[in-house]
Each structure stands twice: as structure tokens, then as C-alpha cells.
Write a structure and sequence with these properties.
seven-stranded mixed beta sheet; globular
């Protein structure tokens, strides 16, 4: 179909009674302030803060900021935030971000433009946060290149919850299963190597790559307790009666997780990336 706007697609999603839990898990619920408060207190954002730190006046670009939940959370933790969002929606776009700014007075500057159209000087930001952004890019390499330009030396880019596929067949399967793609047509995904090549081509150094089970960043809406329980269960099943002991060894545990990730070919599975500008 692909005729709806993103706002219309999300409104349809909200209207489905069976999707009520998923609406909240995706932070699509209204009022946006409630969703933003919940995200700011989430285990996912706690991990974002662990990786990027408290702001203390540093400047972060929230790329593809959506309804502003991450911009709100960063500003509450001392970051000076520039939120970039082209969609004008009052519910899921720039209008929602402006409402959060007006309501809270938090230190957020809003730019209503695409990620490839940010007219700011090179090296403007200490960090860039991009939650579920790059797989929406018209040109992955182009958006990554433009984003890297805006980072200062030793600045960090944290790209989280990017959809991954192995090939075009998986991409088609992922799109067919996505509840909103058939309405607005904006979902895509790439292989891990395609993401990494785009980051490296832009001159960024790869610091960490996390697969679906390796971080709460990807495991949400599951909890960290649930993630750890699953990892323990995987360890027990890997080497029979010895698994319980072996999974306590950090290097063995990492090997187990990597083995599971390498065997996972679910279309649209989630990966996150931490990059640094030399």
C-alpha cells in the first residue's frame, strides 16, 4: 500500500487493541511526555549513558530524533542536545519534540531537516546518538559520511537497534512481517558488513559491535534480568553438564554468545555499533 505518512501508520498501530503493549514498548503512546519519562528511566538508556557518559555541558546530536524521547533523556542528564527530525508530526515527529521543549524547558535545539541536510560546521558535536536511524537512510554511506563530519576528534557515534539482514530475500521477508512498513514503506535493513563498511569509509573507528543478545540496547523490550537468564540457559545447553561451570568463564561466555549470534539469521535482527572519530 505504502500511501500513509509515518504519523498515520503509527495512529493505525495505536488503534489495534492487540498492539497496546507493543505501542508502549515502542514509545508510541500519548502523551509523549509520559513515553519520554519512561525511556529516560529505561535500562536501554542507562546503557546509553554508561557508554557516552553524563553530559556535563557536552553537546550531542540526536539524529533522527523521532518524537524526542532520547533528546529529552539526554537533556535531563546534562547534555546540550540538538535534535534533528524532518517529520513535522505533533505526535511522532518534530512537533512532538517542540512540545517537550516548551513543556519542560530542557536544553534542546530542534532542527527540522533530514540527517543529510544539517547545515552546521564540521566538528560541532562531542557525540552523536542514532536510535533506529541508519536503516532508514536513502543513502547509508551518504548519511554516515555527513554524520561523521559533524563529530569532533575523539567524538563517539552510538548507532543502536539497526535492522540486519543477510540478503535481499531476507529483506523482503522482514518488510512483509513489519507491522508498519506496508502502510508507509520506510523500512529497510543491511548486512553487518554493509554497516561496517559505511562507518569505515567515513573514517570512523569501530569500537564495539553488539548482536541481539550482547546488549540490552538490542534485547529491549526484554529486561537485563531476562537477558542474563537466557545467556545462562544457553551456557547450560552448550556443553551439557559442564556448561554451568564453563559459562562462568568470561571468554567462554563471549564465545557462546558469538556462536548463537552467528547462527541467528532472523530477518531484521537488531545490532548496535559504537564508533569513534580519530
Amino acid at each position: 500500500m505504502n500511501t500513509a505518512t509515518w504519523e498515520q501508520a503509527v495512529r493505525w498501530f495505536r488503534s489495534q487493541p492487540e498492539c497496546a503493549q507493543a505501542v508502549c514498548q515502542n514509545y508510541f503512546d500519548l502523551p509523549v511526555r509520559n513515553a519520554a519519562e519512561r525511556y529516560a528511566q529505561s535500562e536501554e538508556f542507562s546503557e546509553v549513558l554508561r557508554l557516552l557518559g553524563i553530559g556535563n555541558g557536552r553537546v550531542v546530536l540526536d539524529l533522527g530524533a523521532g518524537n524526542g524521547i532520547a533528546s529529552f533523556a539526554f537533556a535531563k542528564h546534562g547534555w546540550r542536545v540538538t535534535a534533528v527530525e524532518p517529520d513535522p508530526s505533533e505526535e511522532v515527529g518534530a512537533g512532538a519534540i517542540q512540545s517537550l521543549i516548551d513543556e519542560t524547558g530542557l536544553n534542546v535545539e530542534l532542527m527540522r531537516c533530514r540527517g543529510e541536510e544539517i547545515l552546521l560546521p564540521d566538528g560541532s558535536f562531542d557525540a552523536v546518538h542514532a536510535r533506529q536511524v541508519f536503516h532508514h537512510a536513502a543513502s547509508l554511506e551518504g548519511m554516515v559520511r555527513d554524520t561523521a563530519r559533524l563529530l569532533r576528534s575523539e567524538g563517539k557515534l552510538l548507532a543502536t537497534r539497526e535492522h540486519v539482514v543477510d540478503d535481499d530475500v531476507q529483506l523482503a521477508v522482514f518488510r512483509a512481517a513489519h507491522p508498519l512498513h506496508r502502510w508507509y514503506g520506510g523500512e529497510s535493513a543491511y548486512s553487518v558488513s554493509t554497516y561496517l563498511n559505511a562507518f569505515k569509509s567515513a573514517g570512523l573507528r569501530v569500537v564495539r559491535v553488539w548482536g541481539p543478545l550482547e546488549s540490552i540496547l538490542n534485547f529491549y523490550p526484554g529486561t537485563e534480568v531476562e537477558r542474563q537468564r537466557l545467556l545462562r540457559d544457553l551456557g547450560k545447553g552448550s556443553w551439557g553438564k559442564f556448561g554451568v561451570c564453563l559459562e562462568r568463564i568470561p571468554c567462554v561466555r563471549r564465545m557462546q554468545i558469538k556462536q548463537v549470534i552467528n547462527q541467528d539469521h532472523t530477518p531484521g535482527r537488531l545490532f548496535s555499533f559504537l564508533l569513534e572519530k580519530p
